[in-house]
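Input (structure):
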């Protein structure tokens, strides 16, 4: 794949998704930005403008960058997507149409690992219930009950041992918790035991921390069989994508005691969360905040800008996805 021509002409960029000051203000006068927040807005894009657009910033995963969207832009060369996960971008369509896609890896790794670790401890030690207990005044009359769960007697299986999986592993190791992992291939330079078979790993541990990409290859991989193998002490922490866990099966497993508890940052149909989950006491639920601090989100926005700037300066983009690799330019 080769990149944008260096030119003194104006470069038209689509900015698709919610407004972001770092993206809106991040380009020189050489660029002309065309902001469209939603798909309904995009339907009002005039053919004359569409014909000029060479790059797109996709500013949040709530807008889908599918084939139909990219087909609106005949001169599209690059899509710079916000977020490390890009299951909302049709990477195959992009590759087939010579469009390079970039994402925002690394700058969010430690932040998301912090959230995974926090969510695991909050789930096991029931922080949310304890907070509600104190606020209700009950502590004045009785002690908060001992938590059934603890990090002290656990063995964790990390599902996905990439950048974030390894950062979670480091935190668990520092907390003296034994770690093993599942991924399709053994991870380079990782010494934890690798399980090519997810069910075998679930049988060997009592806690799963899920941090694989979304999309068809991982859809509902954490299914009823995995939950059964995990067993009645089982805890699932999902910071990956809601699609990775069979949500209905998990609700049934939490209800029946097939597993003990879950901590979830992501859901199958965000921002809708099933009422049954919201009513449960043995779950901690977060509104997809893995990377959601000002400092980390700013770094992600900046990387979107820097990828587009590099491309239109005739350089290789900083972080192309595996499906649309760019040889040095
Ligand atoms: P990464 O470095 O690409 O790591 C992905 C890991 O998943 C690799 O170990 C990979 O190993 C494994 N994997 C991929 N497909 C698999 C499959 N079908 N079965 C089993 N394992 C598979 O990605 P990352 O930077 O760690 O990010 C991981 C994901 O976390 C993102 O794609 C995103 O969906 C999610 N995320 C969520 C939040 C949040 O706010 N909650 C924030 C950031 C990221 P193999 O290829 O060897 O299988
Ligand atoms: C994003 C995420 O904030 O990077 C990812 O994959 O899940 C989050 O960091 C989210 O996708 C919104 O675009």
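Output (sequence):
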């Amino acid at each position: 794949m080769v990149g944008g021509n260096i030119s003194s002409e104006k470069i038209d960029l689509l900015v698709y998704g919610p407004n972001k000051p770092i993206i809106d203000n991040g380009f020189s006068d050489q660029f002309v930005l065309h902001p469209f927040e939603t798909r309904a807005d995009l339907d009002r894009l005039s053919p004359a403008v569409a014909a000029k657009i060479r790059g797109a910033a996709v500013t949040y995963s709530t807008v889908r960058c599918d084939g139909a969207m990219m087909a609106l832009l005949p001169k599209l060369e690059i899509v710079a997507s916000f977020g490390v996960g890009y299951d909302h971008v049709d990477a195959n369509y992009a590759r087939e149409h010579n469009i390079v896609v970039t994402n925002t890896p690394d700058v969010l790794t430690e932040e998301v690992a912090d959230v995974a670790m926090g969510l695991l401890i909050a789930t096991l030690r029931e922080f949310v219930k304890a907070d509600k207990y104190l606020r209700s005044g009950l502590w004045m009359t009785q002690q908060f009950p001992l938590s059934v769960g603890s990090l002290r007697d656990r063995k964790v299986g990390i599902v996905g041992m990439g950048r974030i999986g390894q950062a979670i592993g480091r935190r668990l190791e520092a907390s003296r918790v034994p770690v093993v992992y599942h991924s399709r291939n053994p991870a380079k330079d990782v010494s934890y035991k690798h399980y090519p078979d997810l069910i075998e790993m679930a049988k060997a541990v009592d806690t799963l921390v899920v941090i694989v990409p979304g999309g068809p290859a991982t859809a509902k991989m954490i299914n009823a069989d995995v939950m059964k193998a995990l067993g009645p002490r089982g805890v699932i922490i999902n910071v990956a994508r809601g699609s990775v866990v069979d949500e209905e099966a998990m609700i049934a497993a939490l209800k029946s005691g097939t597993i003990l508890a879950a901590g979830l940052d992501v859901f199958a149909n965000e921002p809708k969360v099933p009422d049954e989950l919201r009513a449960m006491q043995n779950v901690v639920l977060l509104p997809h905040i893995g990377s959601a601090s000002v400092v980390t989100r700013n770094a992600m926005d900046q990387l979107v800008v820097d990828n587009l700037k590099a491309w239109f300066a005739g350089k290789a983009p900083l972080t192309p996805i595996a499906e649309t690799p760019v040889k040095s330019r």
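Notes: The chain has two domains: 11-105+294-312, 109-285. The radius of gyration is 22 Å.
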